[in-house]
Amino acid sequence: MEKANENSDLERKEEFLSYFYNSKVPLPEKWPGDSNIYLAPSPRAKGITYHLVPTESGASPHFPLDGTVVRFEGPTFEGKIISRVKHASLINRPFQKKEYKQDYFKGRSRMFQWVVQGKFKQRLRYDKVVTGQEFLRPFRNAPSAAIIRQGINILRSRLPEIFECDLFADKPRFEHPLICGCQSFRVDRSQMADPCTDDYIIGENETGGIVEDTTMLGGEVPCSSEQRRKFFSKLENLQNYYFEMEHLYTFEFYSNFFSPTKHRIELAPFFSFDLIPYFNGIP
What is the radius of gyration, based on Cα positions, of the chain? Predict the structure, then answer.
């Protein structure tokens, strides 16, 4: 009986670590310097090539977290991406960006920022392009449904109205249309920049944020971020617009609630919790 229990424990341990192994993230002792976070391409992002700087250890290359531009190409989109994470080790940079926006997090409650800029390779309707997260295994020790609902209700005013969420499935997921999920959005003429070669982001302000600009979409689309997301939360509006191949699109994402370096959701001073016990080996 003891032997059977030992085998069962080993199987559970291997199952627990399998997702981590499949992610190709190196062991923490091989991370650059004293970094407490390692951002690597997702194994689910098939067909996407990122132009990342190779690591000295030969491990899977990681994204710089200081706003340095990384070029990429995929089946439906090509362009560049930048990443910033609050409290990430400064050593987690393969090289120093000349115009590093040191003040991006100053005076803000933001925990991270991602910006994607580039061109679509095919014409796509707005409601057909979504963003979100899918986990390939269920969470462990998940809080009760009542607690989850309470957390979502606290966030409800800041979430898109079209928001699908199932955190108790075998493959938990949440998703919503990209256009009403990004905090900042802009459309420019593609002639302004070559998204595959330029090492800067069009529309970035002095602190690294993206300046909203929907002028090219016409007068019906609101010019403010909040009103634009509210406008595109309606399916009938989503279905009237397309991502055009001749335009340059910029999407900015950030969060005031999830801290990647602390692995915590911090909704308010009186309501926060650690995510590690629930992630079931998901890095």
Answer: 20
Q: Residue 122 has what DSSP assignment? A: S
Contact 129, 182 (CB under 8 A): no
The pLDDT assigned to 114 comes to 93
The better pLDDT of the pair 81, 4 is held by 81
Q: What is the mean pLDDT of residues 151-171?
A: 71
If DSSP codes are grouped into helix, strand and coil, which group holds residue 183?
coil
Higher pLDDT, residue 132 or 229: 229
- CA-nearest of 183, 184, 149 to 167 is 149
Instruction: Provide the CA 219 distance to its chain's centre, in angstroms.
Output: 30
Q: How far apart are CA 220 and CA 30, in angstroms?
A: 51
DSSP 128: G
- What does 47-91 look like in DSSP terms, one character per residue? T-EE-PPPPTT-SPP---SBS--EEEE-SSEEEEEEEEETT--TT
**The residue to which tokens 């969060």 are assigned:** 255
CA distance 174 to 162: 11
The per-residue pLDDT for range 61-88, each reduced to its tens digit, is: 678 888 889 999 999 999 999 999 887 7
Give CB contacts under 8 A, 24+ apart, made by 59-64: 59/24, 59/26, 59/30, 60/24, 60/25, 60/26, 62/31, 62/32, 62/38, 62/92, 63/39, 64/92, 64/93, 64/94, 64/95, 64/97
pLDDT at 132 over 50: yes
